[in-house]
Amino acid sequence: MIDALRDVVLAPRCAGCGEPGAWFCITCRDLCEPVSRVRPLGIYGAGVHAGPLRDAIHRLKYRAEPGLAEELGALVALELARNLAAGAVIDVVVPVPLHRSRAASRGYDQAALLARAVALRDGLPIRSPLRRLRQGTPQVELDRTARAANVRGAFVVEAAALRGLSVALVDDVVTTGATLADAAAAARAAGARVVNGYVVAIDE
User: Fold this and answer.
1) Which residues, other chains included, contact 1 with Cβ-Cβ below 8 Å and sequence gap of 6+?
2) From the centroid of its chain, how far is CA 82?
3) Cβ distance 117 to 95 under 8 Å?
4) What global pTM score does this model have?
5) What would the pLDDT profile of 117-158 be if each residue is shown by its tens digit?
6) Cα 80 from Cα 199, distance rounded (Å)
C-alpha cells in the first residue's frame, strides 16, 4: 500500500536513464548481463556494478528510493530461478542484514527488501536469522585489504536456525566478497548445508 501510494504521489523515473514509468526500465534491464564467481563462495549477480545498474543501486542505498528494491530484486530472482531450473536446490532466502543503527538512519534495510522480492517471485520462504554485531566503517570507504578485516566476525546467527538447509544469501553488491563470506560462515555455523550468494551486481 505504501509503495503504491508513493508511486501515485511521486511517479517513478528509471534510475538508469531517467525515463518516466518505472524505477528501472526494460531498456536498462536489458543492458544487464549476468555475471558470477564460483570461489571461494558461489556468487551470482544480475550484472556488473557499472552504468545504469550501478546508478540504480546507489539510489536504492543512498537516496531513499526503496521502490527500486522490487525492480532490482526481480533481476536477482531471475538469476536464482535460472539456477533452480538447472537443478540447484534452494530451501530458503536469507538477507545479509545492515546493522540496526544504519538501517534505522536509512529508514530501511535494502538487503531485506531485495530478499523479500526474490522470495516472493521465486516462491521460496524467507528467514532473517543473521544479526550484524557491529556497524563498522562502510565497506565503500575501505580498500580491498581492509574490507575483510572490517567484517570479520561481524555476524551472529540463531543456533541451528538453518540446520540442513540450502541457503541463498541476498545482498546488493559484492566487491571483494568479504561481507558475503562472513555471512556465509555464520549461516554454516547455524547448520546450513549449502550457501550461495545472490546479488544485484558484482564489482569486477
Assistant:
1) none
2) 17
3) no
4) 0.86
5) 999 999 999 999 999 986 655 545 544 554 544 555 679 888
6) 10
